[in-house]
Fold:
Amino acid sequence: MDSWTVKRLLEWTTDYLKKNARQSSRLEAEILLAAALSCQRIELYTNFDMEPPEDKRAVFRDYVKRRAAGEPVAYLVGRKEFYSLSFQVNRNTLIPRPETEQLVVESLDWIKARQAADSGFAPNICDVGTGSGAIAIAIAHSLKKANRPGKITAVDLSEQALDLAKKNGEKHNVSDRIQWIASDLLENADGPFDLIVSNPPYVSEPEYEQLEAEVRNYEPKTALLAGPKGTEIIEKLLPQACARLNNGGQLLCELSPMIAEAVVGLFEGSQWKNVRLLKDLAGLHRIVAAEF
Structure:
């Protein structure tokens, strides 16, 4: 019988995961094997003929079995890349997603424009519902070489999420510029802020039932489900943001394309100005932006 080399393990696992309807089966096989062997993915290709020891193969087999059953890869290996940074994740937090990186891009573009108009501008930023800390940390990391990097307050209702976010902040050396606060939205965050950015729960009850099983069965429901309509949390956030934004401040909030028009309607008859929907790379409405 052929030995279970790195090459054979990858080939067998790719086929196995493909049969279990995993679309990125080769990539997932590589990520799981690299995690089991405590090495980088690139090292797999320089060690194709190596036969990993049985204890490492046992770890890998467990990963593959759990992945085939639907457990997300990020939770299995305990990390996920976001904005070119590696973040620890666990089941107390959502898994950072590529589309959320647009919130970081829009935030940095807004800050850059303000600093171009006022070289002394040092942004005071609040990340609402920080989870793993991905948004706050990515912004802080990108601003660390700026003349006036400002400061960030990151809030979350979950103490477990905040504990993980703090570890991620320490890992990326930005903890000195981020204040972590346990808070239901902005209740415990005084401000005033120049920029409020948030990826809040925005999934409606009907949409929640249609989510992929690996999302619905593993990721925290409280970080996903907003209520019957999907707009409930954003509706609660808006008056709190009004009370804590400086004049000329900006709100950037991720949303589902399914509720985009309904969310815009929440701003009508208020003090908000220049309310607009921003599209993601797929051409779907993904962010609502507004000035105060």
